[in-house]
């Protein structure tokens, strides 16, 4: 039997990056995956290439969108077992240069989107007495960073949300697990875009980035798969770091030879 055979999962940000990698692994291991994203054309094309997956348009910053999507998934499949809140954006700016527009845009997708997802997943998982919510955080919520102020703040909020949902579920005996995943640098479109911006404005910093360890999206997808599966039935409210010791090593973790 496959590791998530028969489970129904929603993955936000499913059209690319870590979300897409998670969709592939969950589907490979038997889940029915709903790939939710605002990028319709890209998401539909990606879903068409994955057996056991379908695409659904979702604006994660709109609560009514969330309610409609989750209700439609339950109506179609009879259940929701897994929610992966993976949608997120980053804009490079220190607190000195973070405008209200940047702050609200980053937090609308990351913070608000995760809040709405958790809220409505709990609503439909609670009657079933089971479920796994997996929130994408980042090592930015552990270390911070001078030029990712809004992003680090959003990920830190998601870290707190995760633990609060987990505690509620345990104390009220809802049977829902809620965990966060904290990747370091991963080879994704988001990281490549950040690199291009840095290279254009600060070549010296880009050269340093060239020498750092970068993981693969499947590394994070495998952690998501574990948390979605019954193998992690006693893991609740945990911070699962996927960073090859980056947050605990003195100095930088070098790129492998």
Provide structural commentary:
InterPro entries: KR_dom, NAD(P)-bd_dom_sf, Sc_DH/Rdtase_CS, SDR_fam. This protein has 9 helices and 7 strands. Strand 1, helix 1 and strand 2 form a beta-alpha-beta unit. It has a single domain (8-240), classed as 3-Layer(aba) Sandwich (Rossmann fold), CATH 3.40.50.720. The protein has helices at residues 17-28, 40-48, 63-77, 100-125, 140-143, 149-172, 189-201, 203-210, 217-228; strands at 8-12, 32-37, 53-57, 82-85, 131-136, 176-183, 239-242. It is globular. It starts with 7 loop residues before the first strand and ends in a 15-residue tail after the last strand. With 257 residues, it is α/β, with parallel strands linked by helices. The longest helix has 26 residues, at 100-125. Helices cover 48% and strands 15% of the residues. Helix 4 (100-125) runs parallel beside helix 6 and helix 7 (189-201) crosses helix 8 (203-210). It has a 7-stranded parallel sheet with strand order 3-2-1-4-5-6-7, with helices on both faces.
Helix-strand blueprint:
Layout (H helix, E strand, L loop, with lengths): L7 E5 L4 H12 L3 E6 L2 H9 L4 E5 L5 H15 L4 E4 L14 H26 L5 E6 L3 H4 L5 H24 L3 E8 L5 H13 L1 H8 L6 H12 L10 E4 L15
